[in-house]
Amino acid sequence: MVREWANSLIFAVVAATLLRWSAVEAYTIPSESMENSLMVGDYLFVSKLHYGPITPQTPLQVPLTHQTLWEKGPQSYSDLIQLPTFRFPGFSSVQRNDIVVFHVPHEQQRPADVRTNLIKRCIAVAGDTLAIRHGEVFLNGQPGAVAGHPQTTYFLEVAAPNDEIVAALHAQGVVDYREPDGIPRVSANPATGKPGFVISCPAEVAAYFRRQPYAKSFTVVQYPMQLFPDAADFDVSQAASATPNQWQLDDYGPLPVPKKGQSITLTPANAAVYYKIVSQYEHNIGITWKDGMIQQNGQPLTRYTIKQNYYFMMGDNRHNSEDSRFWGFVPEDHIVGKAIFVWLSIDPYADFLHKVRWSRLFHSIS
């Protein structure tokens, strides 16, 4: 009887592991980068069947000979061999506006499939040219049809902050996740010193507050920063554009998204765009960065053919999302799956009786 139970347990564990690897995996949303399309406390299922499951990317451990162990020392008990990865056929390829789970591109110290997983919206696919002008997405020179409920961060300036305004913020679903209770706190407008609230919200909520008599001004908050490809190798090396573009969160590009088979002429003007692709994602050897150019075996690399497709991902909470604007493209072999529906949603700031967001249960994701 004990053996039968043990066999059943082993079978269940193996079956669950295979299901998780090949078909569906559960995730939870820990941060506000996808608000309001996905909310902190959402529990969702991600389909790996849509894009096809991918074989493990963690290197295999191969025992060394006794002689090699002796020569290398007592801590070198295995060599690591990276086998080629393979993606099984899926229902579809990644499409614009899909909400996608993927391995974070910049944790280079670990194999892709044991890195942190992120979830963002695919804004541009391989072959697109992306630009953002005053917060509006353009694809190939035309306004992009962006799905979901993108949020922007604003400063709502008021003459006298009071409980009525705080209640209106709560009623409109405005949450500040930096605060223990989620309630936005009064702060000063950095431009004028006047009191008000920093809030992130979609366009329809912004329109509501602009109409209110207590709104003295309602302006987009600016966050000057260095973005990709000016910082060509986010948190990994000091590679940077020879000629900075000085793009910002709401004014970005134009930037071409690399496509498999595309042949690129590399110059100091564009080398930073492709540095991570050549040096990290496509496993070339002898790659370094020097004098604003990609070098291979000590010589400038002037031409390169892209080996896989890439994607440009952004969070729907546009001013509160670390995404492709910071670290560049997502390689195809980093894609995990497509978010399909929310099966449970817990409000971290609600009381016990209202903890579950019932309206979001089995809510499809778009």
Automatic annotation (TrEMBL):
Keyword Hydrolase appears in the UniProt entry: yes
Q: What is this entry's stated membrane topology?
A: Single-pass type II membrane protein
The UniProt keyword set, sorted, is: Hydrolase, Protease
Task: From the Swiss-Prot or TrEMBL record, give the protein name.
Answer: Signal peptidase I
Organism (species): Hymenobacter glaciei
EC number in record: 3.4.21.89
Question: What's this protein's family per the entry?
Answer: Belongs to the peptidase S26 family.
Describe the location of the Peptidase S26 domain by residue ranges. Answer: 3-144, 300-343
Q: List each coiled-coil range.
A: none
Catalytic reaction annotation: Cleavage of hydrophobic, N-terminal signal or leader sequences from secreted and periplasmic proteins
- Location, primary (coarse class): membrane
Q: Where in the cell is it found?
A: Membrane
Matching NCBIfam families, A to Z? Answer: sigpep_I_bact (TIGR02227)
Q: Is Nucleotidyltransferase found in the keyword set? A: no
Say which domain of life the source belongs to. Bacteria
Enumerate the SUPFAM superfamilies for this protein: LexA/Signal peptidase
EC category name: hydrolase
Task: Give the matching InterPro entries.
Answer: LexA/Signal_pep-like_sf, Pept_S26A_signal_pept_1, Pept_S26A_signal_pept_1_CS, Peptidase_S26
